[in-house]
Request: fold
Amino acid sequence: MLQNRLRTIHGGTLAALVDLGGSLAVASTGRFATGVSTDLNVTYLSPGGREGDVLTGTATCDKIGRTLAYTSVIFTNSKGQLAARGSHTKYVAATMGEDGPYVVPAEAVEELEDDETGKSRN
Reply:
């Protein structure tokens, strides 16, 4: 575990997880490309993440517009208490084509499903 001097999870680790979680939240809308970060904020609400502790992160795409996507990530401990929350704004205009957002082609999804099951459709 990446710890700070107080032996709790390092704040930079949570910030990196907000970055990743925000990107995955944008990807969950079906976009193949998730854009670039324009803003990232983390609020640490209570100490947490000591060695052996379990923190759960939940990422949500709150709003996605023509140019920006707004996401939020919350971290709770094993008791369900809020330990930290983050927000992540992404510039997504470059992820748009003439017909809408770039999405994963259906053929690629089928290939991924084949790889997961180990079965070939051919």
Summary: Strands lie at 36-44, 56-64, 68-76, 82-91, 96-97, 100-101. The two ends are 44 Å apart (CA to CA). The mean pLDDT is 84.
